[in-house]
Amino acid sequence: MYTSFVATALLSCFASTALSQSTTLPGYDSNVPSTTTNASLSFGQHYAVLNLDLIEGLVSGINTTAAGQAFITNTANWIDTVHQQTPPPLSIFTRIYFSNAQRPEIAPSDPFFQVAVSLGNATATSPQSQLYHAFSTIPADVVLRKSRYYAGDGNSLEEILSSQKIDTVILSGIRTSGVILSTVYRLFDLNYNVYVISNNTIETPPDTPGINAAILEGIIPKLPASVITIEQATAALCRSGPAVY
After folding, report:
1. What is the DSSP string of 118-158?
2. DSSP structural state of residue 109
3. In 3D, which of 194, 191, 208 has the Cα closest to residue 35?
4. Which of 219, 146, 135, 147 has its CA nearest to residue 177?
5. Which residues contact 115 (CB under 8 A, 6 or more apart)?
6. Phi, psi angle pair for 197, to nearest 5°
7. Could you give phi then psi for residue 193, rounded to 5 degrees?
8. For 9, which DSSP code?
9. Helix, strand, coil content of the chain in percent (nearest 5)
10. Which end of the chain, N or C, is less packed with Cβ atoms under 10 Å?
């Protein structure tokens, strides 16, 4: 039976013991242990929140499952909590779509083509490329287009992070073995402090049992980048800032 997420607790900067959804279904596991033991963890002042590929075409594939609903609830409340900060930190969302319906950014011979076809001929106005309705944005947020796994593919992500003197990034998104893993590697190589919120990542079906946990417990910590729980992320957010960018 799933634990109810206490939204009001997560929205409060004084609630460091917020509860999260719990499930052991393949593709999602909120019980992944944190790799950070620092009880006074802070993201500092120069941090950015990256919400990756939270689009209708991907989230709609998991939104009828208990695991998917847990992921959506946790991620949506995290985004709302970030927006409550004064001032709100830099939040960057990514969307996958192509310049036009002919998908000029990708060829049938490209390895990524098999991934891209699942979204059809998605363009900027296609329903499947829009941010999923549960996830809100505010005018200060940045929304970037991409057409590969990496969050900075073909857009100004790296330019924005560098120009704004960002040194720390906190990642949420779908899917763990795609955009999350690809972006962790790239930003780690660029010398950013990288945190992944384990509750806010998920695999899309079909999923091999254990792959989500294997990435979060084995691959990412091996870099080493940090995997934290949503409770730790919320507490660290409250200790951080005021955000500068």
Report:
1. GG-S--TT-GGGSBPTTS---TT-EEEEESSSSTTTTSSHH
2. T
3. 194
4. 219
5. 149, 178
6. -85, 110
7. -75, 120
8. H
9. 30, 15, 50
10. N
Task: Give every CB contact of residue 165 below 8 A, 6+ residues apart in sequence.
Answer: 46, 244, 245
Q: How many residues does the chain have?
A: 245
- What is the residue whose two structure tokens read 């992320």? 233
Tens of pLDDT along the chain (245 residues) come to 333 433 444 445 644 434 444 444 445 566 677 888 888 999 999 999 999 999 999 999 999 988 899 999 999 999 999 999 999 999 999 999 999 999 999 999 998 888 888 888 999 999 999 999 999 999 999 999 999 999 999 999 999 999 999 999 999 999 999 999 999 999 999 999 999 999 999 988 766 668 888 999 999 999 999 999 999 999 999 999 999 98
Please confirm whether the linkage preceding 104 is cis (ω < 30° from 0).
no
Residue where the block lists tokens 């730790």? 232
**207's tokens:** 């999923």
Per the structure block, which two tokens stand in for 154? 């073909």
Question: Distance (Å, rounded) from C-alpha 25 to C-alpha 217?
Answer: 16
Can you tell me whether residue 44 is helix, strand or coil?
coil
